[in-house]
Amino acid sequence: MRFGAFVPQGWRMDLTGIPVDRQWDTMVSVARVAEEVGFESVWVYDHFHTSPRPSQEPTFEAWTVMAGLAEATAGVRLGQMCTSVSYRMPSYLAKVASCIDVMSGGRLEVGIGAGWYEHEYRGYGYPFPKAAARIGQLDEAVQILLAMWTEDRVTFSGEHYTLVDAFNRPKPLQEPHPPLWIAGGGEQLTLNVVARFADYANFAGDVEAFRHKRSVLAGHCARVGRDPAEITLSRNWDVVVAETEQEVEAKLAGVTGDAAALRRRGLVGTPDQIAERLTAWEGEGLAYSICYFPDATHGDGMRIFGEQVIPRIGG
Question: What is the DSSP letter of 224?
């Protein structure tokens, strides 16, 4: 299994209490720890208003962070989970992604999805159409990204976007293009887009839901003539890890939110317990885990995971 880690950026209220002039240094420090202890990639969310509730706490913009981390890190890969299709014209996003791939020496992962956070859509003045329309935007945007990364002139006419002789230089360093992640588990529309275009899929849920989504995706792949093995299956995790069960309980007590729900949906336990659980998930086809550590700015969870879990099941 391969592993990524989220860098705190404020969206989940995870920079609260840190002075603004120290927040970027904190983010860079966490990214460098992830790189040091063996995570393949670091990730940020693409949001403008905090969660679980909108607040005045800072939230750093995802693609600005990508550019900054391209300079601040050396070898770790850089991703977004995931870019909201509505927030940037896909032609512009293709340009930004190409530049950051060059700036990072070919370390960019591009994640994209249909978007969902209506409060920030309304706040920033973006239309918030029905899900089917947003997924239609996603379908066209992915086609534009792939064309802009691989063709010299791009002309595109769709329901949502129109391009006429668009140029994109520099091209990404990665060939044929940066890996494309498409997030979301909508069975009729989103997974159809995944089957046609994605290098990586990302969807949530328990083991039963994961099996079901994997099966639905395989069905879409069969219909479009693609081997589902070409698509790496990934999942995001909230992780609370400590050396002993007593320390795990102490950490849980300090995590905001429902500890019981975190146990159900996340990875909670000692390194042995988490490695055992991930091994079972690997047997279900999960190949890439992206981990969010609530204590990333002030604790040792990321380091414990990198030093004691990744070596056991990382590949």
Answer: H
Contact criterion met (CB below 8 Å) for 227 and 190 = no
* Contact between 241 and 304 (Cβ < 8 Å): yes
Q: What's the 3-state SS for 145-196?
A: HHHHHHCCCEEEECCCCEEEEECCCCCCCCCCCCCEEEECCCCCCHHHHHHH
Query: 0.90 cut: is pTM over it?
Result: yes
User: In order along the chain (315 residues), what is the average pLDDT of each group of 10 residues?
Assistant: 98 97 98 98 97 95 98 98 97 98 98 96 96 97 98 98 98 98 95 98 94 97 97 97 95 82 90 97 97 96 98 85
Alpha-carbon Rg for the chain in angstroms: 19
Amino acid of residue 157: S
Domains held by the chain: number: 1
Residues 44 and 110 sit within 8 Å (Cβ to Cβ): no
Domain that holds residue 67: 2-313
Work out the number of other CB atoms within 10 angstroms of the CB of residue 5.
28
3-state SS class at 265: helix
Cα separation, 117 vs 315, whole angstroms: 34
* Tokens 């995590």, residue located: 255
CATH label of the domain that carries residue 286: 3.20.20.30
CA 108 and chain centroid, separation: 12
Other beta carbons within 10 Å of 125: 6
The closest of 11, 241, 271 to 119, measured between CA atoms, is 11
Burial of 300 (0-12, 13-18, 19+ CB in 10 A): middle
